[in-house]
Structure prediction request, 422 residues.
Amino acid sequence: MPANTPTGPLAPFRVLDLTNELGQLAGRMLAELGADVIKFEPPDGDPARWNAPFYHDEPHPERSLFWWTFNHSKRGVTLDLSRPRGRDLFLQLVDQADFIVESTPPGAMDAVGLGWETIHARNPRLVMTSITPFGQDGPYAQWRATDLIGAAMGGLASLCGAPGRPPIRPSAAQGYTQVSAQAVVGTMIAHYHRTRTGRGQRVDQSMQEAVTFTHDNAMPTWDIRGINITRPGNGRNIGGYWSGQYVFEAADGYVAALSFGGLFGLTARQTIEWLDHHGMADDLTSEEWLAKLDASQGVLIPPGGDDSDHLIEVLAKFCKRFTRAQLVAEAQQIRNGWGIVHTPADLLQNEHLQARNFWTELEHEDLDETVTYPGPWAKLSATPLSVRRRAPKLGEHNQDIYSGLLNLSAPDLANLKSAGVI
Prediction:
């Protein structure tokens, strides 16, 4: 089957993608589900094309790895929606579309005559998903926000960092990715409703709400115990209790070792026996320590005490002696939940991801080579998802879309281009 042939559950459907970097992942996920996603850009290009890093460190609008990552599997066209002719062309495509995903500020689509009421009246079956920093209404609705602001105002940044130090931002774009992923969930729920009723609806997805949704036990801890979870640093704060240091340095990198690697809790004795087998248990085999460990079954301990500091010291010294693979393999033998802290380079070579064919090679004919991409985000047995094509070049599919779907002639396209409409 050709790489560009859609195979996913949305293969019969078309998406008009009007997102910026806030929501471009949503369009990509819908494309991987098989939808024909048409990415719209202004005639001078989407600013996200200039987001670093760049292929071979060459700044160029067709070399942005950010653009490649979040816009592959889409077709791309240029269109100026501020012009009446541009809006007319867009509405003609609305007649043939099933979804719109957009991330313009609240009211911006209404201001150019393309708001929800207009779209719904023209195509009642269409689902329109609006992705914004704070939603369509409320006191913050008109505020602009980057991913950093989403992580901050969604509360996630307050949970990131070391105890006693200021909050830090997550290194990955959690605001953008979370709001996009949750927007796709909302879109699919609206799509299911459409299959039952024949009617589309609007999905209003807020980045702040999407980030707040990711807080795990932080919200219930405040609601039930009146405690704000503090930044846990190299551990985890569970219900107001510190779980112990998680990450330790190995001989060739780092490993994640749950709750002092098992030195407190139900696996404490076998962990001590493991360390003792290598002659590195220090004084943890003494009756005094074993009594402490027996008394602490399943209890989490606060940081900074003499006991926790000593356990960290013993375990840190032990871990530095062995490689990550050695530590994890032996920890699994005693049913300890350890794992390798993989780097991006590690993941490209990871045997498990390779065995599951996670990595996908896409041809970049302009580069005369293929580029490795992350594969689809889910595996479906009957309607598999796929990564079908590289991200579109600026205006690459203008002729395919405007001539193929709207029957515009070559002179029509030339006139539209010279007038700055496409």
The domain at 14-213+353-418 is CATH 3.40.50.10540 (Rossmann fold). The chain has 18 helices and 13 strands.
